[in-house]
Here is the input.
Amino acid sequence: MKKLFILTLLLAHLKATAGSHSLWMMVTYIKGDTPFPELSAIALLDDIQIGYYDIIDNELMYKGPNISDTPDTSDINYVGNFIGYIYGRMRDRADYLRNYLNHTNNIFVFQRASGCELLNDSQPGGLISRDAYNGESGDARHYNPELNTLHTDRVWPAAVDSNWPDNFHFMYEYIYHPNCISMLQKHLKRERHRVLKTVKPRVRLLQKQGPDSSVRLTCLATGLYPRHINLTLLRDGQPVPDHQITGGELLPNGDETYQMRKSLEVSTEELQQHHYTCTAQHLSLDNKLDTNLELNWDSVTTSIVSTVIAVFGCLLGGAIVFIMWRKLKGVSSQTSVKAYSTTSTTTKENMRKLIVLCTAFALSYAYRTGSHSLWMMATYIKGKTPFPQFSAFAVLDDIVFGRYDTNEGKAVHINLHLTASTDAFDEDDTSYAAGVMHYVLDRMKSRVSRMKTFFNHSEISVLQKAVGCELLDDDKPGMMMTRDAYNGEPLVKDHYDGNSLHIEWMLPHLEDKGWTLNMDFPFRYKMNYYPNCIKYLQKHLWKERNRVLKKVKPRVRLLQKRLPDSGGVRVTCLATGFYPRHINLTLLRDGQPVPDHQITGGELLPNGDETYQMRKSLEVSTEELQQHNFTCTAQHLSLDNRLDIDLEREWASGNGMECSVLVAVFVCLAGAVVVFIKCRRKHKVIHYGAEQCFQTSPQQSNSEQSSSDSSTVT
Here is the structure.
């Protein structure tokens, strides 16, 4: 058990390089009768414990100043799945190693430490996983994301058997590393005040008399953070050699700070002959801190001094309180007058924050009506065709919002006008899509080669894959499905409900159970495929909410068209331009639905502008058309009630052309008449105005004459 604790301490202090940050998960499995739990797990951000897994209640618990915070759903799901998976793996591994190493003791311990780091430039660093059995270091794996390489340092080479599938590279590339980095970035932001703080060390140089006239000098630095410190004991300005020093271990204080002490035993004569100094260098200090020797009191002296300081502090505090009370008493009336205005201002500010908060909640829940789905469709073609060898696109509900550009190797957003855009895809989208497409293309190439060999196909082969997940009406994750088809024939179907995976081969003789077992698909669905699909569905459902949640009313018509060959009439019930795609379109005869076997059409077709159309047709004779009343009725989410449309006539192309010409001629004639009437009226107005300018009324003439006479007399 001593080795166990030493190993745990060493694993706990695995740290990323200076300036970077790391996230570690430490898991310990104990088999045997001990006072410790069978399985324990803790999470460390840099060197601060941020959480642990309660195996009794099977729940994740935060630890630290935010201990009252409730873990979010993503943390609960990921850690719960991880612990469930790692528990089974470690138990099997421990049993295997016990037999392999021929251990007969009743208690054995298996430990695993897995961690990743963010470098100084916030770029993802590597991922390391270390195993230990009964205190002895074991296998270690190192994943380099830049080179995409996985290196394993094996200590138990013969311990790897068929129970350990050789697909670790996939796990590290697509599951372990991206999930670890995502959790690291998330909690680094959440715990930044704890992780990025700098606390100055309290440095002291103490001396304590020994029983044999010797003196112990102790250079102590405590209460420091981060943990990196350079602590040196100097003698006459020169560092004391390491072999004379005791201590020097970095120890936690229990309050997320650290301490370190280095001690040296000297004689009384040596203490008087030399000058001793304790110096410390730390990130919180602008320069090094030098501390000279001080006396280390005994317990009695310390108690007396502490009591005197406490009494003095109480007296001083009482005096300060009395003075403040006298001052506050004089201004109490002024304070009461201002109280209402202050309270009123605070209330208004709180109401403003409340309104903003309510608005944010309203927006966040706006898309949670009805179920939604996210699908990825990929096609791989082997052979010479005018089509690209590999193509893939993403569909949100029934709207294509993205495609994969194989030439540039990146995801491209498709906007409302069906043009390429990169506005809606962030770095997370593009990097994840690139990794998934690279993996899917490799798997599809491998499967096509296998199918061509099996079916002895030498020409063109086409493999298609559709992968999708759904959110239910209550915003809970639903099913995840995968469909493969080869040359138009269904090949295999996967169904995952969040707990169990069902794989159904359409061609049972093609099933490779060994390959399925080695790929460990249940784990992949649980830890990677399913949570990531749900994550991106929720993310893009919010981004594309204006396109996905819109409602467009259908334009409904009931048309008739004569059929010259049969002499009958085709009655067509048409609904077009509607969204969402779900519609109930019915053709009625005398108020009763026409039987389906008499109806042609009924397929839902896209219009090209993110709306849909549907038409249902019925061929009848002229007599039947006159004897019965036909109605087209539609029910759609955009309609408050159903919409009923009666029969109208759909002209033939020749009659339509003639009517168009007649309408055009009529419009031209009507326009000419209107223009003629307006010009005639305008001409009359101008003629009348001219006459008024050149004719003078009798009264005006007399007035002018009188004015002229008056001027003459004057």
Remarks:
- The two ends are 139 Å apart (CA to CA).
- The longest strand covers residues 21-31.
- The chain has a mean pLDDT of 76.
